[in-house]
Each structure stands twice: as C-alpha cells, then as structure tokens.
Q: What sequence folds into this?
C-alpha cells in the first residue's frame, strides 16, 4: 500500500534529512515509524502526503506515484497532523461538512458520512456544539473523523495522542485499532509513546540519520535483544564511566552495553543473578550508582540499541495550545490576535494590551471547559463598532478633543455593567489611550 525505494531529500541548508530510505507498508497493517528528533520521520511523512518534494527515489501510495499523480494520492489518503486541523469556532458538524466539500463530495454523501462517523466516534451528542467547548480527546476524535470523511485507503497519524491524558489516550487507541481491524484501513503512525507503538502496531520501523535501521514486529525486536536489561543510573552531570562499561563487558553474562545520558544499560543473560556481581564490580571501582533495576527488554531498549538515545528520557511534549496560536503566540489568524500581539510587544495601553498572557490563557481555558465568557474577538469587534458610532457623534473633532470625563462617561454607557476591561479604566487612562489612538490613526 506504501512503497518507498531509495528516497533522498536534502534541504537548501545542506541538511540531508533522508538518505536512500527504503520502506514497504502492507495493505491493512499498522506500521509505527519511530525515531529521535531530526531522524527523518517528519520529512518522510511530508513526502508521502505530497506536502514536500524529494530529490531521488520512487514513492507510491495506494498504487499512485507521489511525484506524477499527487492528486490521486491525496484522494486516497487521510492525514492527521500533530497540530489539530479543526476550526474551534465551528461546530463539529460544520467542520465535517467543510472537509467533505473540499473533497467535492455530494451533500447526501457528506450527511451519510457524518452520521456514520459521529456514531462511530461517539460525537453525536456534541455534533452541533462549538468545538471550542470540546475536551482534548473529543477534538482529536473529530480531527480523525475529518480525515476519514472521504473514505481514504491509507491514514497517516502524526503523534495522534500527543498531550492527551492517559484515559483519552487509551480510548483513542481503541478507535485506531478498530479502524484497522473492522475497516481494513492501512495506517502509518508516528509516536513518542513506545507503549502506543507496542500495543497498536503490527510492525515497528526505527529510523535514524535518514535511514531505516530495523523493521520487524514489536515482539521480534524485543526478543532479538535476548536476556534481561539491567540499568545503572548515576547522578545527573556525573562523567560517563567508560572504564566501568568496558570492565563489565568482560563478564560472560554481559552481552552488550549502551550509555544513555547518565544511565548505563547492560543486556545480560539473567538479570537477577547478574546484579550482585555488577554491584561488586562497581564497588571495586568506587563507583556508586544511585539506582539499579532490571526488566525484560522493551521497545525502549530496542530504540536505544539502534539510535543511541532513549525516548523515555525525553521530556514529554504537550503540543501547541490552540489559544497560543490565536492569542498572540505567533498567530495571525484573527484581527484580535494581531492587535493583542502588537499591544504586548509595544506596551500599548489598549484594551487588548491590558490582557496579560496569563489572563489570555485563563480566558481560553474557560472556553475549553465550556465557559461562556465574552470572546476577545467579539470584544475587539464591539470596540471597533463603538469607535465608529462614537466617531459619528463627534464629527467636530478627534478623540483627543474629548475631556477625560467625556471619555469615561462614553465608555460607562457602552459597558454599563462596569465589568469590562474598558469599564475598569480611570478617566485619565481612558483619555490617555484615546489620545494615543488619535495620534496613530487619523481615519
């Protein structure tokens, strides 16, 4: 279903992201593509989903050549990126309808698929509610539903459970497994949760330095290590004890060893009997680990073997919060976001500028929890309307010609409840802000 032969991709900076990569994904299987940051995972996914070109190689998805038939590939695939693709200001139904129209589906077909998908993902009760009030797990299910609206043959899931709590993550695992088992959907999955890859995938491919290092079933990869994994953990910042690892490798029961930051991983025939001897040797060298443990090999041990680093040692990423994108963290998708960011950068005492980042986060969190506080986008729109109305009333001069009392009186009338950010201004603050506006905007 997916075929990659000799894929090469070098960016303009000179970085070679993928180097003669070969990969085959069979019809109806779930394959987990694992690798550290910068290993080539994202580049491979972008090429497969037609979002990026490549330099050399042959790539086909669902029987279509990615290079010569990109439109046919797009019709055959669904793609769920790390950052959600749904619109928070639309309802769940509106998001699905929009996606269906993008694929030029008929109205009847769209409605039929919405009924099927909303029932499948348990969204029927919230389908006509704003996505703004959805939980993280519900939003992710809607995200996957939009990718399935056109009945794709292949589904790409890039970190599908990133940032979700344990319960939501496990719930989503069940849906992904059912999509594969019941619908025969071919799924290519990337994840930083090795437990997720272990539970969901038929095969695991580990990529590093732009090439596939190993590919097999999770059980076969773990069994290939053999024996037990013994881990010696040392103080953070302590030097790497290469002499110790070389000394331990001389013991017959030690098959191999790998350093990962401040941890030494030893692969031994029998962990229980090996640990006393390991402790003796560390004492002889006056090296004292802070913790010693052993277990059957896991995918993390496999990952360390082929990449030299551990996923479990990485700090868990939360993913970009959607309010950061809309509330000035690099976002440019709304009039309010632009004004809020500009005010934060310039120190302008505008109504938006008086929102601290914490206040913005609090407001968005309130919305995500189903709150009904007035949206800043609405506030900005109303402020604009107020400016227009007031300007008509004061044709004889600009805002700067208002007295402090007039400015405050006008705002009081507009925000009679006294609870808005404008209503909390003093007369001097109101006049100062309008003076600034009059100097900067002569319209």
A:
């Amino acid at each position: 279903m997916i075929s990659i032969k000799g894929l090469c991709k070098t960016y303009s900076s000179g970085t070679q992201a993928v180097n003669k990569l070969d990969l085959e994904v069979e019809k109806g299987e779930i394959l987990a593509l694992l690798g550290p940051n910068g290993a080539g995972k994202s580049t491979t996914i972008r090429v497969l989903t037609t979002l990026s070109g490549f330099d050399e190689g042959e790539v086909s998805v669902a029987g279509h050549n990615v290079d010569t038939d990109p439109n046919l590939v797009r019709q055959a695939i669904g793609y769920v990126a790390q950052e959600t693709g749904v619109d928070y200001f639309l309802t769940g139904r509106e998001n699905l309808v929009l996606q269906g129209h993008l694929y030029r589906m008929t109205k009847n077909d769209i409605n039929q698929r919405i009924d099927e998908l909303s029932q499948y993902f348990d969204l029927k009760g919230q389908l006509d509610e704003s996505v703004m009030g959805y939980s993280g797990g519900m939003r992710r299910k809607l995200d996957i539903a939009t990718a399935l609206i056109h009945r794709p043959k292949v589904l790409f899931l890039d970190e599908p459970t990133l940032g979700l709590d344990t319960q939501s993550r496990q719930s989503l695992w069940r849906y992904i497994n059912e999509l594969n088992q019941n619908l025969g959907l071919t799924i290519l999955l990337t994840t930083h949760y090795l437990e997720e890859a272990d539970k969901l995938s038929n095969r695991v491919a580990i990529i590093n330095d732009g090439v596939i290092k190993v590919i097999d079933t999770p059980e076969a990869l773990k069994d290939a290590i053999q024996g037990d994994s013994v881990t010696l953990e040392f103080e953070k910042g302590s030097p790497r004890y290469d002499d110790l690892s070389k000394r331990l490798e001389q013991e017959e029961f030690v098959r191999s060893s790998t350093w990962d930051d401040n941890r030494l991983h030893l692969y031994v025939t029998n962990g229980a009997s090996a640990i006393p001897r390991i402790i003796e040797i560390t004492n002889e060298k006056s090296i004292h680990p802070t913790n010693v443990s052993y277990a059957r090999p896991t995918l993390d041990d496999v990952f360390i073997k082929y990449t030299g680093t551990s996923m479990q040692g990485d700090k868990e990423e939360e993913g970009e919060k959607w309010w950061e994108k809309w509330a000035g963290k690099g976002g440019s998708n709304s009039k309010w976001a632009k004004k809020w960011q500009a005010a934060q950068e310039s120190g302008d005492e505008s109504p938006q500028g008086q929102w601290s980042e914490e206040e913005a986060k609090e407001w968005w969190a309130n919305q995500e929890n189903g709150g009904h506080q007035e949206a800043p986008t609405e506030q900005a729109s109303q402020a604009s309307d107020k400016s227009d109305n007031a300007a008509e009333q004061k044709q004889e001069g600009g805002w700067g010609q208002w007295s402090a009392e007039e400015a405050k009186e006008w705002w009081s009338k507009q925000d009679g409840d006294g609870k808005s950010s404008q209503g909390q201004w003093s007369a001097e603050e109101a006049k100062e802000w309008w003076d600034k506006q009059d100097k900067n905007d002569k319209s």
Observations:
- The chain has four domains: 2-220, 227-296, 334-390, 394-443.
- The radius of gyration is 29 Å.
- DSSP finds 17 helices and 14 strands in the chain.
